[in-house]
Amino acid sequence: xxxxxxxxxxxxxxxxxxxxxxxxxxxxxxxxxxxxxxxxxxxxxxxxxxxxxxxxxxxxxxxxxxxxxxxxxxxxxxxxxxxxxxxxxxxxxxxxxxxxxxxxxxxxxxxxxxxxxxxxxxxxxxxxxxxxxxxxxxxxxxxxxxxxxxxxxxxxxxxxxxxxxxxxxxxxxxxxxxxxxxxxxxxxxxxxxxxxxxxxxxxxxxxxxxxxxxxxxxxxxxxxxxxxxxxxxxxxxxx
Length: 239
Known about the structure:
Layout: H1 20-32, H2 41-49, E1 54-55, E2 62-64, E3 72-73, H3 75-92, E4 96-100, E5 123-127, H4 132-147, E6 151-157, E7 160-166, H5 168-180, E8 192-195, H6 202-208, H7 213-220, E9 232-235
Parallel strand pairs: 2-4
Antiparallel strand pairs: 1-3, 4-5, 5-7, 6-7, 8-9
C-alpha cells in the first residue's frame, strides 16, 4: 500500500465518481477470475467453509459496521483491508470502518446496481469519514491504486461511502512486488510514525502494517513486548 509520505503534496485525487466503464472493468475482472455471483446466504457460508472467502476480522485499525451481515471476502480483499487499515489509522488516527463486504444477490439493497460485484466477494465498502484530512488521505491512496490498475474505486452518494472493487491477481502481484523490492532505510522525516492506542500490541501493529514484531523491536530499540498508549513507534514502510 502507498504510504502517505510517498504521495506528492500537491497531487489531487481523481474524482472517484464511478462510471459505466468502471462497472465494465469490475465485471470483466470477475469473469477473468471465474468468480461466482453468490445468490444466497447459505452459499456465502459454503464458500467460506471451502476457503474461497475468508473472514474479515476487526482490529485496532479496522472496525466492521453493524450493517455488515456477511463478514467475508476474497483473500486479497482481506489483505487490502488489513494493509489499508493500518496505514489509515497511522495517517489520521481513526479506525477504517468497513460497511459492506460480500452480499448475496438475494440480499442486495434496493439502490444496488444489477452489475454490482459485491456478490462475488471482491468488493468492500468503506465509511465516509467526517474528518476531512482522513477523506483526503484515503481518496489520494485509492486514486493512486486505481492508476496502478489493481482496483476500481467510487465515492457513492446515496448513502455517501466508498465502494472499492479489488482486482485479486493484480493486487496480490502489486503487494508481492512491494515485499520483494529492496527497501532503503527511510530518512527520519519519511518514516511512518504510529501512535499506540489503548489495547494495541506489537503483534497487532506489525500485522496491520505488513511487517514483523522483530522489525518493530529492532527499529525502535524495544527489548520486551510491553508498549503503552500514547507511545510513538516507527513502522518500516512496505517491508
